[in-house]
């Protein structure tokens, strides 16, 4: 997992060609002009899901991980917390869904806070739970860029 401000994006662009494209997309997109929803950047190899939602209490929610995609999650507006832990061989609570590329886990995790202008990169070994409130629910606008591995 990587957590940083978008001003530091150049530090991470050499990790993977798709991550470079995702970070460039964030830097060069005016999200005020982008409609909510899914937008293809390079077909199914690289796309963004732009969404607005109210953060939620944890209340029994499960962590997720992916096999086919890296998540680059960028907070356009608002603040949220995310749960994160490493996949070290734990068995999922919900088996892998190959169509939607996710599996769910019920594991202990650490909390990170992601503010406006920050991004988190989650690799397949990063089990994560986004959209968590920092107290009372609040509105967040977020771009989730899916980078095919």
From TrEMBL:
GO annotation, cellular component aspect: cytosol
Domain of life assignment: Bacteria
Name of the featured protein: YhcH/YjgK/YiaL family protein
The organism's taxonomic lineage, starting at the top: Bacteria, Pseudomonadati, Bacteroidota, Flavobacteriia, Flavobacteriales
